[in-house]
């Protein structure tokens, strides 16, 4: 059995394994987060219950704003033409450390916080844990704010309330608006099934809805007079599927037919398909996207219909930063992983055999994974756009039972009970300690900026993949 030697350990409700914090500032931040753990857990569960999808997170965003205002942050609401986006700032001068928070849910994933599949009547669920993401990041920002006050240290802590990460590319609009121009470093985290900090990259992504329009008619009495918009969608899908053999193997293309008509005996005059294209390089995404567009145009020509495209989102791949990743990793190791209670172990043992779960040792939630450099995650995130404009680093913590895939009912279930909240607290402490380190050590920021400039190149100029369109506020309608 692994032994954990602990010289200093604040009470964590018997839940989280920890090691000695390196300095008094870290100790104070940990102590404060411990004292507010129940409150933060209740807030996360409240947002879990709201389960609001992208750009509709009115109550979730307001809850975070209200708490930050109580803590003395100045809150700017409705930034970047997004009603649920906000920026909360405390302090003045340099350095400026930003912390990202998300709070949107996913449609179609309503689930109770139990280890068997059971919807609870909602239309959405937090299957990516953004209820934990938002609250955990806020908790870290508040702890850092209080350290700034107590220590008299100069600098600015800024919390970014970022909506619609799931396909809405909320951060890309915020970057485009210039809201990160004066920030020195950005920190973030994400729920997961293990504990790790890394300087890995991700997949760039572009998405759009293709809307076909035809002519309606009686499907039996006058089919020759109709032109099926659904035929247009299906021909497009067939063409794209044939294309898969002839694109780089790292590419991912997904689609869902969001409207295929209303009745079999009516030739549909409208149909819509929603597409994603991903690749480790945004340049490849752009070139593959042109081929998808041609498939849509060809399908319309072949079926006697018309097609129009609405770009919904577009995000860059993550730009890694080894300097920041090492600092984050050191602090995550100092905090340690999760120790399940008997009740949580029972939950994990029941959910692990359910369909769709991966094979992973439950006890791995206790461990901190080794620092991974130059890796690649198969997901996409609008944090990518931030990372090409500001040195950025993130981590993952085990808010789900090991083996749980994101965007699953199992993730919703664990995220709605104590396992999720424990992982959130690990992330909050790690973020707070990392931010404090950056305030205390200007050289780390300088080194991170030097690496950042070298990686992105002297000739880099940011241009959003989603173009100059306004935020797609109704993309979940």
TrEMBL record:
Signal keyword on record: yes
GO biological process assignments: folic acid catabolic process
Peptidase M20 dimerisation domain mapped to chain residues: 206-298
GO CC term, one of those recorded: cytoplasm
GO molecular function, one term: dipeptidase activity
Membrane recorded as keyword: no
Leader sequence residues: 1-18
Name by which UniProt lists this protein: Amidohydrolase
Keyword terms of this UniProt record: Hydrolase, Signal
């Amino acid at each position: 059995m692994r032994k954990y030697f602990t010289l200093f350990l604040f009470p964590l409700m018997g839940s989280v394994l920890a090691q000695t914090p390196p300095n008094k500032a870290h100790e104070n931040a940990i102590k404060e987060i411990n004292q507010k753990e129940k409150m933060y857990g209740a807030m996360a569960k409240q947002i879990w219950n709201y389960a609001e999808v992208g750009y509709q997170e009115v109550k979730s965003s307001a809850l975070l704003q209200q708490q930050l205002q109580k803590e003395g942050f100045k809150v700017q609401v409705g930034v970047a033409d997004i009603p649920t986006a906000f920026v909360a700032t405390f302090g003045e001068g340099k350095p400026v450390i930003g912390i990202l928070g998300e709070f949107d849910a996913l449609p179609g994933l309503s689930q109770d916080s139990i280890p068997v599949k059971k919807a609870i009547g909602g239309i959405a669920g937090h299957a990516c844990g953004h209820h934990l993401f938002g609250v955990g990041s806020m908790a870290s920002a508040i702890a850092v704010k209080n350290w700034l006050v107590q220590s008299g240290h100069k600098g600015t802590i800024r919390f970014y309330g970022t909506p619609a990460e799931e396909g809405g590319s909320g951060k890309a609009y915020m970057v485009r608006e210039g809201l990160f121009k004066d920030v020195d470093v950005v920190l973030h985290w994400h729920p997961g099934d293990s504990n790790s900090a890394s300087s890995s990259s991700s997949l760039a992504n572009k998405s759009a809805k293709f809307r076909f329009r035809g002519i309606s008619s009686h499907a039996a009495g006058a089919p020759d007079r109709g032109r099926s918009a659904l035929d247009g969608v299906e021909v497009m899908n067939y063409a794209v599927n044939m294309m898969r053999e002839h694109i780089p193997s790292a590419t991912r293309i997904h689609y869902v037919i969001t409207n295929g008509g209303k009745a079999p005996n009516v030739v549909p005059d409208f149909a819509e398909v929603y597409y994603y294209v991903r690749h480790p390089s945004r340049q490849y995404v752009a070139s593959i996207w042109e081929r998808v567009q041609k498939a849509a145009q060809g399908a319309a020509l072949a079926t006697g219909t018309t097609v129009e495209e609405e770009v919904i989102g577009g995000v860059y791949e993550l730009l890694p930063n080894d300097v920041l990743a090492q600092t984050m990793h050191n602090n995550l190791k100092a905090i340690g992983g999760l120790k399940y209670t008997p009740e949580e172990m029972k939950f994990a043992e029941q959910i692990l055999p359910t369909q769709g779960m991966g094979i992973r040792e439950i006890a791995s939630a206790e461990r901190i994974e080794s620092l991974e450099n130059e890796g690649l995650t198969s997901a996409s995130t609008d944090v990518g756009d931030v990372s090409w404009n500001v040195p950025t680093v993130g981590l993952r913590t085990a808010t789900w039972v090991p083996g749980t895939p994101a965007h699953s009912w199992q993730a919703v279930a664990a995220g709605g009970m104590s396992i999720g909240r424990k992982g959130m607290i690990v992330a909050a402490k790690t973020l707070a300690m990392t931010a404090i380190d950056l305030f205390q050590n200007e050289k780390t920021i300088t080194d991170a900026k030097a690496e950042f400039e070298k990686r992105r190149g002297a000739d880099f100029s940011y241009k959003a993949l989603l173009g100059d369109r306004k935020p797609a506020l109704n993309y979940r309608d």
